[in-house]
Structures are given as C-alpha cells and as structure tokens.
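[Discussion] Sanity-checking designs against the backbone

I'm trying to build intuition for which residues belong where. Below is a structure token string of 290 positions. I'd appreciate it if someone posts a full sequence so I can compare it with mine line by line.
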C-alpha cells in the first residue's frame, strides 16, 4: 500500500502527545491485497484508527473485536502491553485512512489495556463539515478517554473556502492534509500542506485561519498540550529508555514463540493463526526524543 509517514520527522517528533502519523491510500485493495497486519504488540501508547474509505477488522488481547468504518474511530489503549491485528475486510475495494499514535504520559503509561469505539455525528460550521473524534472543537466533544489534553477532528472545506478554527493558546496543532491543499494562518506565520503532509501551528494562537485550495479539501486537526516528556520509540513500542525497549522486545518474542502463554501482551485471540516477530534491534543505542 501507499503509505506517507508525516510524523515523526527529523525536525519534529511530537505534536502534543501525537507521536506517529501515517496517511495511506487511496488504494485499490483488489490489486494490492489491502491491509494485512497479523497480531503485533504495542506499549506506552494509544492507537487511533480513522478511515476515509473501506473497512478494517480489529482484534486485540483485551478481548475486543470491532469493525471500523469511515467516520468511526477506534482508540486502543496499550498501557503496559497489548497485541492486536488489523485486516481490511473482504468487501473493501478502496482503502484510505490515517493510522495515528498518542504517547501515554508517565503517570498513565501502565494503565489497563482497552478498546474504545465511537461514531461521532458530523456537523456544519460556516460551510465546512466537521467530525470531532477526540477531545473538543467548535463546542462539540468526544466521550473517548485520553490521558492528555488532545484534539482530533476531520474537516472538509469546499474549494476556495476559509474557516476560523478556535483553539487553546497553550496547544500546538498539526493539520494533516488528505485531499487538496490546506493553508493555515496563525500568529507564527503561514504554512501550506498537500496530501500526506502536516501544516504545523505552534502554541500561542487563539485561532487558526484555514484556507482550501482550488479543489475541495479534507484534513485532520491533530492538537494538544506540548507533551513535556521524552520518549524512546522503536518498532511498535513507546518506552523511556533503550533498556526498556530491549525488555519489551524480548517479552514479545517469548509470546510470539509460545502463543498459548499469557504474558505482558495478554492472551492471544483464538482466531489468530500467527503473529509478527519483532525485527532485529539496531546496533546503536536508542536515543530519547521529544
């Protein structure tokens, strides 16, 4: 599949607690084979699945089994350890979406594993279509629990339209462009993004003035308080040290080799026929980022 890695980048690792942003598709999965992610682990984060087209079937070691559709959010809390799988469904012909991660703060990174699913109701603001799936925007809030102050919303603007987005001055934001071109104006300056790119707006803005290009524009608003902690991120793990990541990998490899055993990542669902092994560790010491 076509995947665009928008975050982390060399110049920026985090936007609020958002630590990972992949934008993928649209792809004809009848040709490419779609999303095939057998059981694999996570620690210290929440995964956020958001689709523009297609369907995904999710299973995890909290016992959850959920189909995700466009306009619905799956938020999976890994805590100290979870494993999950994601597969595009057989009736999916076009797959298109964003896979997002949120780093858990030190005070909650060992919280209980769980899955939350929510289908927000879209609403109109000055000609724009808005769908708030995390946090609050335009006076509408999501009930999905997060452990830091976050915003996650989809916005669709007609060609050439503008929209004033009120935001907290203490939050930083990234606008992930899906279609068209999005230009963000804030006190820090003006920045433009195209498909798979993020327009970054630092703290200090009471609002963001957004302008669409000459075609209809769809983008995600991803914001939050600056995280204020440093993390080590490798493969699917978020930790606080090189040694911790090594330990997470070793524990996963043990469960991967002995799938009937329980452990840090929970008991594997009966539907799983196999899981993904961890890649080899780098031959350098992993550094803190953030």
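Best answer:
Here's mine. Compare freely.
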């Amino acid at each position: 599949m076509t995947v665009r890695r928008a975050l982390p980048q060399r110049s920026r690792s985090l936007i609020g607690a958002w630590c990972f942003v992949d934008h993928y598709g649209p792809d004809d999965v009848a040709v490419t084979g779609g999303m095939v992610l057998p059981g694999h682990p996570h620690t210290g984060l929440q995964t956020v699945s958001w689709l523009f087209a297609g369907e995904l079937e999710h299973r995890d070691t909290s016992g959850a089994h959920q189909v995700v559709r466009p306009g619905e959010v799956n938020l999976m809390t890994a805590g100290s350890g979870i494993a999950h799988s994601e597969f595009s469904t057989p009736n999916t012909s076009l797959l298109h979406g964003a896979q997002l991660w949120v780093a858990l703060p030190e005070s909650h990174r060992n919280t209980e594993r769980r899955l939350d699913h929510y289908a927000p109701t879209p609403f109109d603001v000055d000609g724009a279509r808005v769908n708030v799936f995390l946090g609050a925007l335009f006076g509408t809030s999501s009930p999905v629990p997060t452990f830091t102050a976050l915003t996650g919303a989809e916005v669709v603007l007609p060609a050439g339209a503008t929209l004033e987005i009120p935001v907290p001055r203490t939050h930083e934001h990234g606008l992930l462009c899906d279609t068209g071109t999005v230009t963000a104006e804030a006190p820090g300056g003006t920045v433009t993004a195209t498909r798979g790119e993020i327009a970054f707006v630092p703290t200090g803005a009471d609002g963001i003035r957004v302008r669409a290009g000459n075609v209809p524009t769809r983008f995600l608003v991803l914001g939050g308080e600056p995280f204020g902690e440093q993390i080590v991120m490798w493969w699917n793990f978020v930790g606080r040290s090189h040694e911790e990541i090594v330990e997470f990998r070793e524990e996963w490899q043990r469960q991967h080799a002995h799938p009937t055993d329980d452990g840090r990542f929970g008991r594997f669902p009966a539907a799983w026929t196999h899981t993904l092994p961890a890649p080899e560790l780098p031959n350098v010491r992993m550094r803190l980022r953030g």
